Amino acid sequence: MLSWYTIEPIDVLLFREEKPFSPGEGSWAKGKFPPMPITVFQALRSALPHYGYNQKDKKRNLTFIGPFLLDQQDTLWLPTPKDLLCVRKKYNPTEAEDNHKDSIDTWDKIKRLQPKDTQPGWDYICFDRDELQPMVPPQLEENEFICGSPQPWIKAEALIKYLQGNNFENKKDNKDNDYFCDHPWSLQILPHIHMKSGSRQVRDEEGYFTEIAVRMDPGWRLVAGISTKIDQTVVRLGGEGHRAIVSPIKPLKPWQDLEQFSEQKSSNFAYLLTPGIAEKQKAKYGVYPSNWKETLRGCVSDRPLLWGGRTQIKRRLLNSQERGNWQSALSPQRAFVAPGTVYSFGENLPKDKLLLPDSNSDDLETFRQLNYGKLLWGNIKSG
Predict the structure, then answer these.
(1) pLDDT score for 80
(2) 329, 313 contact by CB (below 8 A)
(3) Helices (H), the chain
(4) What is the DSSP string of 154-199?
(5) Residue 25: band (very low, low, confident or very high) from pLDDT cuts 50, 70, 90
(6) Which among 369, 374, 317 has a CA at the least distance from the CA of 340?
(7) Domains in the chain with CATH codes
(8) In angstroms, how far is CA 10 from the centroid of its own chain?
(9) Does the predicted model carry a pTM greater than 0.90?
């Protein structure tokens, strides 16, 4: 049984990626926000008693889901499905159609990308038969045109409507135009240069790096579920010791409604709720597992989320079997499939309930406990 908590930043949050400075090379500033599940889990876990560093002290006895977003009215927001398209009607024949934007809210209706073999006219365009066929725009009515993509966050109640196979109509007499919102935070890039002590030269390691300061809009918070009770407290989240207030809340009714879509039933598509890993083959990451290829009709995703993080290790001493003190180290970087990815299936469905490789490694067990790669299943009614 999950208990739910809001995580509200006290001020800004800092997430940092760094690389050594060298002339002629670029440097970049990136920060995953909302943070990856394990980042928020470890922040909540820090409010509990410490297990210890010994091997016998290690436990995987907690489950976790999140993080998602909660607004001022305690409305749950989730990643928008990536197969949705905004469609507008051209009321003036001379109106230009080249006003495409990545995310907009001025649409008349929302359509879904469709498997290529369901749309007329695409039979004459050749694609590699050995690769997954693309998802294509649906047939539009006269004077309609695609004007962009919906904003990146969708209300939980709207996601339920989506998983039920229903469409969105932006009419004045309903609330559909409130079903999407933009990122409720702003970013500030903070560059830093570390100089060598006693000189005017930049340090060779970690000489130049950037930080991302994330400031959430007033009233917005992160929200996550974990299988333990935590009293209201303050935890560290992100770099430089920045803090967030953790507060228990009542169970989320929209989440209880969404859980019914965890089972496949009579489904024909899946929506990825949390970051997943789909290893197509060894040393290569893809957006779907190779054993899905026979039944998969199409997939709509985004660029992968590259993330490694840090961990605590004891390195073996030189020419010795003994180990030194605990120290921070970089974890292996992985490419995660972006939340909001959508998979369209034929008559048969995969057996997997999580978008994770089939492995018994400790890392994969951690991902399962933290609900990485959680899929929600829906049905689009034919016709």
Answers:
(1) 97
(2) yes
(3) 37-45, 156-163, 253-258, 362-369
(4) EEHHHHHHHHTT--EE--TTSSGGGSEE--SEEEEEEEEEPBPTTS
(5) very low
(6) 374
(7) 78-181 (no CATH), 263-383 (2.60.40)
(8) 23
(9) no
